[in-house]
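Form P-L/3: holo structure prediction, ligand guanosine-5'-triphosphate.
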Amino acid sequence: MRFQIRRSINNIYTAFSLDDGHIYTCRIKGKVMKGRESEYSPAAVGDIAEGEPYSGNEALITRILDRKSAFQRWNTKRELNQTIAANQDISAIVVSPSSPPFRPRFLDRAIACSSGAEILIILNKSDQADDGVYDSLKLYSDIGFNVIHTSSVTGEGIEELKSIIKGKCTAFAGQSGVGKSTLVNALTGSRQRIGDVSEKYNRGRHTTNHSLYIESDGFSIIDTPGVRELEVPFEDLHLISEAFPELPAGRCLYDGCLHQGEEGCIVPELVEDGRISEDRYDSYLRILSALSERKPAYMRNRKSRG
Ligand SMILES: Nc1nc2c(ncn2[C@@H]2O[C@H](COP(=O)(O)OP(=O)(O)OP(=O)(O)O)[C@@H](O)[C@H]2O)c(=O)[nH]1
Ligand SMILES: [Mg+2]
Ligand SMILES: [Zn+2]
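OUTPUT (holo model):
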């Protein structure tokens, strides 16, 4: 039987059977699934799995099918990649203007945490936005990202957002307290718990504590837990440039140039001319250097091959 994972808490999964339409409580056979040693958790919300029911509402999962897309982060405690959402068509990165404050470096990392999905940048709480934040976000629409403004207070952008996500699966990700669950509730009429933003620290309180798949009328959504810090998952350094579409491909002297000051690299010149934003280039370099210093726990214990 094929299942779609809709909720995951402590390795107990709630999954929808794509064959009989029932909901099953699932466990995964064995502790670590083959080919998934490099991950914090073998399955994520949105994953398609194979398995067999052993009662009317329980099943054992034996295999996770390859993902077409994912939103992943680096779990700094366990030193492994952690998948927050899988198989979404759109990764919606939600930001807010002032509570919590807009952090461009965070947004750049969030974009790089998504792979295989379209990126949608949502400035939520537009009722609190000022010109500064609109200016900062203009950079992203100039680069070619889809940027929209929403507010659950004024209703701005909600209909536009509905038309963008129609017929698709959208994962909402971003800092805690930016209003992901509030948006999800406005879109689906569901009642996800929402929290306030701490006055003292001006950041969210991690109200949503696990990812959840919600099927709605003509679209589906994955609500994810907000984070305070977000690090890009361990991956091939060359993949990072996908999150920076303004970096030129194939125009530097050497193929596969990482634009880190190599001979014949044209990027420093483009930054100098203002054709590539200095801030975005700085984000890119910071991500590369964080990744090159990192080694996942499962790789470190391996014996070196001489
Ligand atoms: N002014 C204003 N406040 C909003 C808006 N959307 C959400 N909020 C408030 O922001 C706070 C946080 O909202 P949540 O929806 O819980 O935020 P979240 O992103 O789901 O947070 P986590 O689950 O912790 O990741 C709540 O107090 C909401 O009422 C908005 O458009 N404008
Ligand atoms: Mg939430
Ligand atoms: Zn280059």
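COMMENT: The chain has three domains: 2-64, 70-223, 237-298.
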